[in-house]
């Protein structure tokens, strides 16, 4: 604990690497817990599998 | 808000397009909120990754 | 299947009752499946437990 | 109900088949419910999409 | 890893204690992993916050 | 998008306020997106509803 789940459109591994480091540090700073206690999961969603306003992401302007 | 997550077996994009439109409209009608405030995520699961009664979907009749 | 999870701010039971009926009907219409195959879960989140733009919901104007 | 979601690194179908059977039996024994009432979803995560201690799984020793 | 999430109607702590033990053992047996690597989360849902067939759990016979 | 879900033991609002600010900033820095595009949900879990190694949190040491 804590377990962090991030739903996002696909991103390259370099961006995920940097984000994982920064998000983990956010927990260390705000909660005073060890970095090792933080687990992060990325759930990447294609634009075909997300909608807003009733329109799929692939159909947006 | 709201965020809607739909776990289902894979379906073609045409069905997801129609469902996203209809589900969003359900929120507009029942809650009186704007369509733009509704986000939908489809999480599609293969039959190998789902079980009922202790049997994987790929092993069912 | 399908399993629908709705994350939202708390709403009264009358609104959830109407939404559940309308969302289920959306699946019946779009996918041609039986109403009985649709399960819906409401996960209600207090404004203290949600943030956008780095501000908790309880701190928004 | 109940709905069981398992987040794990990818495993072969033979292991998932055995696990689904054993987890379902755990519910039957502990809760006294029917096996048919238990649904299980496997959400498999690649090592690129998981981090602990601020390091992605692909970067671990 | 693995992370197990169980969505269920509320149950007493004695049943959850027994289930956690049995489910963890299922992973140890099927995957050959250590019990310590298994984390379980119970997400309990009231009958007002679940629906099947378009009817809330509180409205079922 | 992105949607961030944090599963944790209950914490006071002051800590969640600080964490939300820092996690949002992590996305702005790593992905170059606007703070407004980041939504965070806290899912707090009591020690009765979490287990590791087959033992509920309330039964640990």
UniProtKB/TrEMBL annotation, chains A, B, C, D, E, F:
Alphabetical UniProt keywords: Isomerase
Gene3D superfamilies: Macrophage Migration Inhibitory Factor
Residue ranges of domain 4-oxalocrotonate tautomerase-like in the record: 2-55
Pfam family, one: Tautomerase
SUPFAM superfamilies documented for this protein: Tautomerase/MIF
Domain of life: Bacteria
Gene Ontology MF, one: isomerase activity
Family designation: Belongs to the 4-oxalocrotonate tautomerase family.
Protein name, UniProt field: 4-oxalocrotonate tautomerase
Organism this protein belongs to: Salinicola socius
Lineage: Bacteria, Pseudomonadati, Pseudomonadota, Gammaproteobacteria, Oceanospirillales
